[in-house]
Amino acid sequence: MYIKKSEEKSVGEEIRSVNSLNLLVITFLIGLAIYLVAQIIGLFLTTEAYGPIIDGGNGSKLLLTDLMFLSLSLGMIFLTRGKLTEYGLCKPIGKLNWGQILGIGLIIGSIATIIIIVTGANGNPALSGLGIREKIILLWFFSSVTEEIFVRGFLQGYLNPLEGLKISIGKQTISYPVLFSAIFFGLIHIPLLLFGADLISVGVIFAMTVTLGFFAASFREKHQSILPSIGIHVTTNIGGTMLGPMIYAILVGTI
Fold first, then answer.
1. Measured torsion, CA atoms of residues 80, 84, 85, 88, in degrees rounded to the nearest 10
2. Alpha carbons 224 and 91: distance in angstroms, whole number
């Protein structure tokens, strides 16, 4: 059977499109499975019925959930026999502008928190009851590292074959892995609705995490490492829990 070159190109593009969609769907399902398992284990072991095993509370749930993100992500990397460098677990390539990276994170977190305060929304209920020590150790650092290994490390690394495929949004060109990483990271924060967060809070948090996800994923792709994405994640959490409230207090004159 003879196929013209134009037809060959069309068939090739169609096959490529189908394969790309399949990889995106598979990656989403794996990511969703990891998220659900981590959340279920976190809830299961921190309920009052299992208090003798682990003391209940948001701090314990956050720790267990993040531990599951870490262990399941590293387990999947091992099962897929991938090199750690392919998943961004390596030194960054190229020159890093840490001032820009960390500054963007502080701005994103601060703006989100100020909006929540101004609108009178109740914020993220998962953070209620956390002391400053827990916020620093668990939220600022441990969560930032484990979530980045999960989303920007494993999931985005799994989509490395699609880095050459890009979509144009306005004047910005974004690769499929970066777009997937940003949207997925936002989506896994929507279930906060089930834990007592109001619609305004979830809307702001979704916008914040998608924005954070876009920058973190872009830095990860550019420098082939999750270290820059961990840095911006840490400062976003700092901005959201400390700098944002401080800026608001200064603006209204309470401090």
1. 90
2. 8
Average pLDDT, integer, range 200-216:
97
Residue corresponding to tokens 């990483």: 181
What secondary structure does DSSP assign to the chain, as a single string? ----HHHHHHHHHHHHHHHHHHHHHHHHHHHHHHHHHHHHHHHHHHSGGGTTTS--SHHHHHHHHHHHHHHHHHHHHHHTT--GGGGT-SPPPS---HHHHHHHHHHHHHHHHHHHHHHT----GGGTT--HHHIIIIIIIIIHHHHHIIIIIIIHHHTGGGTT-EEEETTEEEEHHHHHHHHHHHHTTGGGGGGT--HHHHHHHHHHHHHHHHHHHHHHHHHTSSHHHHHHHHHHHHIIIIIHHHHHHHHHT--
Q: pTM, whole model, 2 decimals?
A: 0.89
Determine phi and psi for 150, rounding to 5 degrees.
-70, -60
Distance (Å, whole) CA 108 – CA 52: 39
Phi, psi of 165 (to 5 degrees): -90, 125
Encode pLDDT of 118-157 as tens digits.
Answer: 999 999 888 877 888 888 999 999 999 999 999 999 999 9
For residues 189 and 176, is the Cβ–Cβ distance under 8 A?
Answer: no
Is the CB of residue 65 less than 8 Å from the CB of residue 42?
A: yes
- Separation between Cα atoms, residue 154 and residue 214, nearest integer Å: 16
- Rounded to the nearest 5°, which phi and psi values hold at 94? 85, 175
Region 179-192: mean pLDDT is: 96
Task: Give dist(CA 85, CA 66) in Å, integer.
Answer: 22
Q: Can you tell me which residue has the tokens 């769907």?
A: 25
The domain spans of the chain are 5-252
Residue 202 CA to residue 187 CA, distance in Å, equals 10
